[in-house]
Prior knowledge:
The structure holds two protein chains of two kinds. By secondary structure, chain A is an all-beta fold. Chain A contains no helices and eleven strands.
Amino acid sequence: GEDVEQSLFLSVREGDSSVINCTYTDSSSTYLYWYKQEPGAGLQLLTYIFSNMDMKQDQRLTVLLNKKDKHLSLRIADTQTGDSAIYFCAENPTGGSYIPTFGRGTSLIVHP
Amino acid sequence: ETGVTQTPRHLVMGMTNKKSLKCEQHLGHNAMYWYKQSAKKPLELMFVYNFKEQTENNSVPSRFSPECPNSSHLFLHLHTLQPEDSALYLCASSQDGSRLANYGYTFGSGTRLTVV
């Protein structure tokens, strides 16, 4: 299997909450990331969480980390049509390379 | 404006052409990266430069040739490409290629390359 796994699609209605899930394999990863890619654009760093944290909140975004299950989630409250994009989960590996491993990305589609 | 600028935004080239992609950042970062993004595939790291030195070549075919003249500029020289090389090529930068890279990458908007 892949090192970082995400479901490929998520569809929600405007105003609802979105939860994008990710599982990773390297239990000693110290940093985990969420990036957003809008159509025709590159990846934009949304947030990152250090492995000694369980949760991080930034306005409408909440990141939850379950180290035991190697599970990371991104919750977007009050999802707007402008949130439609591809969301990438990434982990930084051990071994000193400092190069993150990215998931394939989850396409979030927000319906009016 | 992301801070990382890539040109051109779109490029169509024949298999016998030679072209170059350019990436520029003025964020004061010292590490720069080339990634390939193809449909339905994970993001593929191609090359890493840290303080102008190439530190990673991820088994990339020799028809792709990177150049990093200084910490602010990165090029990808292309020659005799194949149609399967058509993809979005993304440039990224980070403060450095080690511990400070943990704070994340800044990506450019990419060059959409089509090889005909």
